[in-house]
Amino acid sequence: MEQPSPPISLPKYLAEGIPKQDTETLQEIQSYVGELIKYRDQSVDTDELPETAEPVDESDSAESGTVVKEKVTCGDDSCKCASRNPADMHGPYLYRYYRENGTMKSEYVGKPRSE
Length: 115
Hints:
It is a single chain. The chain has helices spanning 12-17, 23-41; strands at residues 54-55, 66-72, 90-100, 103-110. By secondary structure, the chain is an alpha+beta fold. Strands 1-2-3-4 form a 4-stranded antiparallel β-sheet. It is elongated, with a radius of gyration of 21 Å.
């Protein structure tokens, strides 16, 4: 059996360095990578979300993270939403909060189906 080729996306220093490791170290690296992936894919805890975010059940979503319903401001200072009064804010809209490289991020998902 031939030594496998590294993925093209793997940086050169890793592609050259990993094969030089002993089997025990490679197993530790494999375990570490698995744990790192789990950490990055975990849902965002509700206490980390903005106060105005309301988690919703979006079980049909293939994406990782936590989907929330949230009212937002548009950024126009002359709009009534600028007061941040929930009754005057736009939405609600769905956002997905997730982790990327250990940092919490969000992305627009769309309008809630039932509203």
